[in-house]
Amino acid sequence: MLPPMEIDLDTLRRMTRLSGFDWSDAELEAVRPALARALELLARLETMPLREVEPATQYRVI
Amino acid sequence: MAELGRMIARKEVSPVEVVRAHLERVTALDGRLKAFITVCGEQAVDAARAAEARLMAGSAAGPLLGVPYGPKDLYNTEGVRTTGGSKILADFVPAQDATVVARLAVAGLIVLGKLNMHEFAYGPEGLNAHYGDARNPWDRNAHRIAGGSSSGSGVAVAAALVPGALGSDTGGSIRIPASLCGISGVKPTYGRVSRAGVLPLSWSMDHAGPMARTVEDCALMLGAMAGYDPADPTTSVLPVPDYAAALTGDVKGLRVGLLRAHFTDVAAPEVRAAVEKAAKTLEQAGAVVDEVNLAEVVHVPSASFAIVATEALAYHADWMRTRAAEYQPDVRERLRMGAFVSGVHYVRAQQVRQLVRQEMDAVLARRDVLLAPATPIPAPVLGEKTTILGDGASDVRSALIRLTRPFNFSGHPACSVPCGFTQGGLPIGMQLVGRPFDEATVMRAGDAYQRLTDWRTRRPVLA
Questions:
Q1: Could you tell me which residues come within 8 angstroms of residue B334 by beta carbon, excluding any fewer than 6 positions away?
Q2: Which of A43, B145, B365, B396 has its C-alpha lying 20 to 30 A from A5's C-alpha?
């Protein structure tokens, strides 16, 4: 399992810039509560034993 | 829709009269209900005249010739603006119809107007800061949400502003408003209906489908919409059955699995009781009902978040860089979450999708349909943030999508059907889920239930 992500402002700024977004500090502060909940959700994915599972694609074309 | 189509075919009423009557109703009621973003008055009357001419000329007519409907305002409509419920696309006028809109036109249906929605379909409440919040017609006093994101579709059908509508469903956006507004809605199998010309929210979770008063109406619409489309590479080449012919009213021997843990058992008491009673109704009509659990669905919130957040931001990335201020605040915040999901998270979510799908397929190998509430709660009051479910407190947004989203994640077909009312007079919806590409059995069960009950006949008081 990955270590829990730090969500200090500097980390947020770097992550969003890596993704190509230039959001202000105020905007980043505003998303922190929602982000904390989102990171909890993502952390749950890390706890699952999925190594042997082939990823699905939704495209079930017949 | 079915009855209106029959009356038109028998020339008891003309398409022009039908369209004008509905336009008058929109004028009288929609100032308060806010179901429409754009009303297509003149175009609709012109189309009705053309349908009338087609009828009088004796050309082959389908069962819905001359019947008006409303597409959610994310279906492209040639020459009619398609906003996606947004300010960003307020002036976008498509050059051609979405495949589904074009197919319904061939079947003789008439676009009465474009229907309200949560901005860019990114919210199950059905709220819209730009065009107003659609209002649930079942409460004359409190402003209750219609559910979303296809809120205008739910309200317009429930209030009889249109006989039928198109919705889209990424986490429940057809079934949630159908449940909260007391109508029927079908989310087909992923791949059954073309998404070409439909604004995406999340490509791998989006489904296009019909909403109407009855399952029979939905079956007629779906029959005209479904099938392979070269413009959408995810559509299936499987033949489309005659859905209307599949509605036999017979459920003898039908194997129904009542979903317990994480579904019926977490619903509000009145909802749980209504769905349990619906199971008994089906059983008394000859269905074989057992109880079943889907353990893997506990992982759906995490995995579907990783997928939807990523795909949604991918679509909106350019606008989020240049026009972020033009989004309504809740949608902007949800879109921003996508920037924090890694590629590893996205693939792990797809692995979870495989597990969830396999479990559902296994459960459905021994049953024909699964039964559960469509939403665990009836329509909340606008602004209500939290609710109590059978397993504790929940925010309203999570509660609304909790029972529907697993089947977007898996791609299985599902429909929502009214199955009762709360003591306060709010509709309750149940959900029927079937095997991939077996919409016919899902709708047969839903239609049979509607023949056994009269919930669909109740109307909200709007005067």
A1: A34, B122, B123, B309, B312
A2: B396
